[in-house]
Amino acid sequence: MREGQAQVIHRLDYQAPAFWIATVDLTFDLDPAKTLITAKHAVKRNPAQAHGPLVLLGEELTPLRVLIDGEPVSFRQEGHELIIEAPDRDFELTLRNTCAPEKNTALSGLYTSGGSFFTQCEAEGFRRITYFLDRPDVMAVYTVTLRADKAKYPILLANGNLLEQGDLDGGKHFAKWHDPFPKPSYLFAVVAGDLVAREQRITTRSGKEHLLQVFVRRGDLDKTEHAMNSLIASIIWDEARFNLPLDLERFMVVGVSDFNMGAMENKGLNIFNTSALLASPATATDADFQRIEAIVAHEYFHNWTGNRVTCRDWFQLSLKEGLTVFRDREFSMDMAGSDSARAVQRIQQVRNLRAIQFPEDAGSMAHSVRPDSYTEINNFYTATVYEKGAEVVGMYQTLLGREGFAKGMALYFQRHDGQAVTCDDFAAAMADANPDSPLSTRLEQFKRWYSQPGTPHISARGEYDAAAHRYTLVLSQRNGKATEPQLIPVRMGLVGHEGQALPLQLEGDIEARGTETVLLLEKAEQTFTFINVLVDPTPSLLRGFSAPVLLEDGLSDPELLTLLRFDSDAFNRWEASQRLGLKRILRAVQGGHALQLDHAYLEAMRAVLRHPQLDAAFKAEALRLPDAAYIAEQLEVVDPQAIHASVEAAWDQLAQALRGDWEWAFEAHQVKGGYRPVAEDAGRRALANLALAMLVRESTRTGEPVWPGRAYQQVKDANNMTERFGALAALVNAHAGLADAALSHFHQQFAHEALVVDKWFMLQARAPERDGKVFERAKKLLQHPGFTLKNPNRARSLLVQLCNMNPGAFHRADAGGYVLWAEQVAAMDAINPQLAARLARAMDRWTTLAEPYRGAAQVALQRLAERSSLSNDVREIVTKALE
Ligand code: PHE
Ligand code: ZN
């Protein structure tokens, strides 16, 4: 790991492996201090390379012996390579090695957590278990035998089906598993420990029976019902929507509290961060329930998009991730039900894309959906590969329609089941299945979405000719990170003054297009002329956010207000609310003056809040101000404190001006009866929580005790975490006098629930800064007995929340945030490089900062870069930031 051999890997250097491994037979003698691994591989030469040694990869391993066809052979080690003299024919390779699971704090490979064994092999963890051709295009059939102490590790799991189990001498037992599907090593998994399972037998459409199991630590079983329900719903959905059945007799899901990511799609044995699996009404919020449903679905959907068809190399990561995020989004929208609930999901996706992926795509780590090079692949599990990748997949569906997209999927599986393929293969299947579509003639251009980084900026200018009844729309695109124009589907409509959806007819078209259409912007600039337009229209562009772009349409306030009131597209109604707020914040920030919200804006927000037809969930989204990170992306030079001050002022004024409306909203949206994690109730709770936050904010400002008192009572009495945490957040975020008491009450009540304690840290680290108090508190929390860098969830809940998610607290004129960041990145790097590299990314956008932040950030980066002991993970991030 720290051998200073950081190497840049290039996509175009791909070569097929010199050997294939057809079968793998592994035996584990599990011991936390020293686990012995014996491997038997059937190795075949790739006929294209008839001679030469076999080069396997291994990290942090001790090799014991190497046999070919049962005979010892000579081998040598060079860095992470094990170089074995190999005959010019097929052979059986036997390896023995050890590793040290309990010393493995990087949580990649075989490690222990809470006294049990777990593995994490994506992307390159398998080589930390045994020497291997650890690359996704080497697919083998695995048989795995686990041997361990029976009392300590009563449950022994691996991929596939259980062949045999039984007792051994010395209090040990064994289990033998076989996975019939060839798979790349990154999908390998074993689990051993004292776990309990929720089980369910189901019969799928084909009449096949399956056993579903969710394994967790004793005591967590009551938090697994939601995950099980989500799994069953996912299985049913994938069969119904894409014709993709569950292909294993047994499907297992396991929770672990030390995990670097959300979850992992190992074949038949998904491993989950407990934060992405466990939920009860008492410990999890609506947002948690929703996220768990999405992640359970995501990992399940990988069984086809990722496992049955996998990636040829890691540059193709978005082939499985972008596609699987797209699939889990479609699933979540179908589960949400109503059109309004679907729109709210879309709004949340876009909010997240803008707050995280847009800055990424403009910053030091900018890369295309299919990157061209990397030093450390772990650094490329990014919002670009996942979320922008999902947007790209969504654009296929926009261009092909739902049916055309389904046809493309069917062809993709027909061609590639059992193979390791590329993004080009996916694109070809989509186009070939739809030869008459606009995609098939523009495929090469569409594929620039994979190769070009950067967020395209679209500008739109419309002109109405009242005499000729013509409306001319000029769309142009530019992308500071790329040169070639991209193919951008712009879903749109024209809205009249009274809100009527105007019929669309393009000059030159034979047929009219109804009231909504998709324009294809394919050139740098293009003009679309609509005819027979009888009134001066307001254009509603990029409906549903039909492409991941920044749109500058220059709409006036009256036009935005028209869209906010009337647009038939709920997403664009929301967008109008955001644009109205964004304009005002930007004006104050750029003008260097205090923000003062005008009557028209406040009345528009009041109208949304009081609207008799809009759903509560939608209202909560429309009334929320844009995120600081998205605001920053609109500016050339970023003063984080100016943005912070404006956003806080806007919240204060919304709280004050709408005070009576917030009271009404709070009372009117109380959910009666028991807690159910359904969209409708969740929407009411979201709006009630926002209202409570506003009321506590306003009361704290004026020194009135009633609402803070009610919030405090709700922290104590709520019968579910959503309301309890909402009230706690209201107090903490408003810096209310009762916040401290509420925090300690909450902590005491949930001290034994790690995931709730994470929330407690997170809330304090992410509170809006006021006079440096949030930063000081976060610093103190580093010394809290419950804080540790070793548990990723806990470390993230304090440090990532503070440094990466709370610009107002992090960017300080005294550079205190940057000093703390550099120290903590270094400390974390010695424990867990992957995690440290995430924290390191807090500085991605430092070059756009105003002084004194910019200069101080540079110094902190340089200091960190000077350390000789950095991992490749952190080194790559810091080097790119300084380039
Ligand atoms: N492949 C996992 C997922 O999306 C993410 C992951 C990557 C987990 C690397 C662990 C390590 O779904
Ligand atoms: Zn995934």
UniProtKB/TrEMBL annotation:
CDD domains recorded: M1_APN
Sequence ranges assigned to domain Peptidase M1 alanyl aminopeptidase C-terminal in this UniProt record: 558-883
Cofactor section: Zn(2+)
E.C. no: 3.4.11.2
Highest classification ranks of the organism: Bacteria, Pseudomonadati, Pseudomonadota, Betaproteobacteria, Burkholderiales
Keyword field: Aminopeptidase, Hydrolase, Metal-binding, Metalloprotease, Protease, Zinc
A GO term for molecular function: alanyl aminopeptidase activity
Family classification: Belongs to the peptidase M1 family.
Domain Aminopeptidase N-like N-terminal: 25-187
Peptidase M1 alanyl aminopeptidase Ig-like fold domain mapped to chain residues: 454-552
Organism: Inhella inkyongensis
Catalytic reactions on record: Release of an N-terminal amino acid, Xaa-|-Yaa- from a peptide, amide or arylamide. Xaa is preferably Ala, but may be most amino acids including Pro (slow action). When a terminal hydrophobic residue is followed by a prolyl residue, the two may be released as an intact Xaa-Pro dipeptide
The protein, known as: Aminopeptidase N
InterPro entries membership: Aminopeptidase_N-like_N (IPR045357), Aminopeptidase_N-like_N_sf (IPR042097), PepN_Ig-like_sf (IPR038438), Peptidase_M1 (IPR001930), Peptidase_M1_dom (IPR014782), Peptidase_M1_pepN (IPR012779), Peptidase_M1_pepN_C (IPR024601), Peptidase_M1_pepN_C_sf (IPR037144)
Domain Peptidase M1 membrane alanine aminopeptidase: 227-435
GO terms (BP aspect): proteolysis
